[in-house]
């Protein structure tokens, strides 16, 4: 069993769900994760594909919280992504991704999986890296991104069937692997007062 991982910016230690090719805590608020080839967490709604082998580093965070990070993936192949991840169990989880689209454009993508079935929603094209944020408030979760314009843009507001561990994931579904850098990692126990207000 791998040893728990400590990131000083977070109030709890983290543990692995799936083992990475490599990882390093590179500072008090930074982390890098290398995913191997053909790694993903996705259950296609048409029932043809179910895969759950991407490495994720997760913490149990009590109560309401907001977790943010600047996400900088290598993005070598289509669907390579750096992800902020929520994990209840193997059938219920959610991803906020900076992902390489089939058009070769870094894109904000969200995926919510309930009862073993994923959805998939492409939202905004970005330039290379992005600030991503996940929030739990009561029984609800919110995904936001900040594109450097001073606003946190709401990407998704949803529920999961139970409290989720939260953390960081790297994936390379069609590629040979990639490394994701997570920097400016920040945690607070106070969620935004208005999830749609941009703060």
From TrEMBL:
<protein>
    <recommendedName>
        <fullName>DUF1349 domain-containing protein</fullName>
    </recommendedName>
</protein>
<dbReference type="InterPro" id="IPR013320">
    <property type="entry name" value="ConA-like_dom_sf"/>
</dbReference>
<dbReference type="InterPro" id="IPR009784">
    <property type="entry name" value="DUF1349"/>
</dbReference>
<dbReference type="Pfam" id="PF07081">
    <property type="entry name" value="DUF1349"/>
</dbReference>
């Amino acid at each position: 069993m791998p040893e728990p991982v400590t990131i000083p910016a977070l109030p709890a230690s983290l543990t692995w769900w799936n083992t990475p090719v490599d990882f390093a805590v590179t500072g008090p608020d930074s982390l890098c994760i290398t995913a191997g080839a053909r790694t993903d967490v996705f259950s296609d709604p048409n029932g043809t594909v179910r895969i759950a082998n991407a490495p994720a580093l997760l913490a149990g965070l009590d109560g309401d919280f907001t977790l943010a990070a600047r996400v900088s993936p290598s993005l070598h192949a289509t669907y390579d992504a750096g992800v902020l991840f929520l994990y209840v169990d193997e059938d219920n989880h959610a991803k906020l991704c900076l992902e390489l689209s089939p058009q070769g454009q870094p894109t904000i993508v969200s995926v919510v999986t309930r009862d073993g079935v994923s959805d998939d929603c492409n939202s905004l094209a970005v330039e290379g890296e992005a600030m991503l944020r996940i929030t739990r408030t009561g029984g609800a979760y919110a995904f936001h991104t900040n594109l450097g314009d001073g606003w946190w843009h709401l990407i998704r507001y949803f529920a999961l069937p139970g409290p989720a561990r939260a953390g960081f994931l790297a994936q390379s579904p069609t590629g040979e692997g990639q490394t994701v850098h997570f920097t400016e990692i920040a945690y607070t126990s106070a969620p935004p007062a208005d999830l749609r207000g941009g703060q």
